[in-house]
Specification:
Helix content: over 70%
Structural class: mainly alpha
Number of domains: 1
Order of helices and strands: HHHHH
Number of helices: 5
CATH class: Alpha Beta
CATH superfamily: Potassium Channel Kv1.1, Chain A
């Protein structure tokens, strides 16, 4: 279930076609909502935002959002980051 800020940003996008200052959690929730309501521009903007802030701290949430939001490119980026991290752990 989307939080109140994500819903507010979703409604703002519907009326203005602009995404306002997405926080990471909002972008995760908005990505899933964009897929559900078939809003490709919002989906792309959220996926791009999440790809830009992807790190090991948020990889699990972003991976789940990429799966739920049907974003294979974002999912691929998550998987590549996980592989790189695993290789670094093995080399340590």
């Amino acid at each position: 279930m989307a939080g109140p800020w994500a819903v507010k940003k979703f409604l703002h996008f519907l009326y203005t076609d602009q995404l306002i200052d997405p926080k990471e959690q909002d972008a995760v929730e908005l990505l899933v909502m964009a897929e559900r309501y078939r809003l490709p521009k919002l989906k792309t903007e959220c996926a791009d935002h999440l790809a830009g802030c992807l790190d090991l701290a948020n990889i699990a949430a972003v991976t789940e959002a990429a799966k739920a939001g049907n974003c294979p490119e974002l999912l691929d980026k998550c998987q590549r980051l996980a592989v790189v991290d695993e290789k670094e752990k093995n080399n340590s």
